[in-house]
């Protein structure tokens, strides 16, 4: 690449100037998109989620914890600014075509798939226009660069504020919908309140969120209908009110397949939903139907084998409420499918639009990328939430946590100090077999550092897998292990 004999310092300056212009252009584009309810960053983030190779996805999930969405947006923004910084390296005659190509590409990204957004496309065009003209009149000196960068940051912040405000309004509107009438109070489990121990029921705001989008889609409940179609004798179209009439409450833990030992990608809730057996009976599947495909507004699909759902052997639900309220937007408002005991990635979609009865030819979102086609069942797992020594420093430690083995339930939890014998602990009362169960014990520890491990035992005799195993491709294995000093 020719730099026309300029000193490298001059080139670095030009790259820095272009990066500043890039940030300005990104801010302008994002604000244009946000003003119309869309986002450039979110569209590109979804593209990344859809096409990133599995090792990259796994690494990202493992490293980002609960901030995966923020990390994705940041990564996309950094990528865009870096791309802009490289523009001065292009020969002059290619710069306009490159900016046009950039605009066309972001517009195309925003217009693709089920999440398509005209707003994002307009943002892409605006960003490209600002980029091109900004590069023509490149910022003169550090003051100009600073101005561009500050403008870009300010515009990005303004866009974020707009989107958050709209999200908040939508959330309030959703919360006000009265689906359940009276909600039964959640019983106690006899373990009381131990500081640091997870509550029996996870509040929506504390419940993990996992999906391929940057933000939850907004769906108008008045317009929304669930359609049941495909290979059925009776097609059905049901409103939220129709579904609420048939719904019942049930308690269950939901676990992400990425929930490695000790992680918080799981939560226990009192759900409100319609048994799938009832819906399937109404629709009457045809004899060729072998799978229930759950389709969502974000273009994501999860399919489940039909036979065990029809008989109720796998007790699945079409869920419309959580902890006495409609589903929160990030948890799938207005409806989702949930079969307790199956990992979140296999249990049914959030933001459900359609239940389609189909044959085995359908391939799901993650299965196209190498995950197994058949549902993966949650393995028994125990998490240690608390290990606190008494105030006197006597070496007595209270160790407590939660454990699950859905759908049949936890029959025991054991802990082990420094690789000695496994010792049973006290269990809280069981809310439901599919729910998580709290546990607690007191151990005497001699002075020094110790490791404590916990394991769950399922009612079917299944013991938690001790060997470490990463989530891909059959779900994680391994024990939660902590160190304490007495
Ligand atoms: N439409 C849709 N549904 C989805 C997903 C998604 O990306 N899109 N992710 C699944 C995964 S991987 C999990 S673990 C659960 C998480 O549900 P939560 O965010 O309510 O905890 O939703 C599932 N349903
Ligand atoms: Mo997940």
UniProtKB/TrEMBL annotation:
Coiled coil: none annotated. GO terms for biological process: sulfur compound metabolic process. InterPro entries: Ig_E-set, OxRdtase_Mopterin-bd_dom, OxRdtase_Mopterin-bd_sf. GO terms for molecular function: heme binding; molybdopterin cofactor binding; sulfite oxidase activity. Pfam families: Oxidored_molyb. Residues 216-366 form the Oxidoreductase molybdopterin-binding domain. This is Oxidoreductase molybdopterin-binding domain-containing protein. It comes from Nocardia yunnanensis.
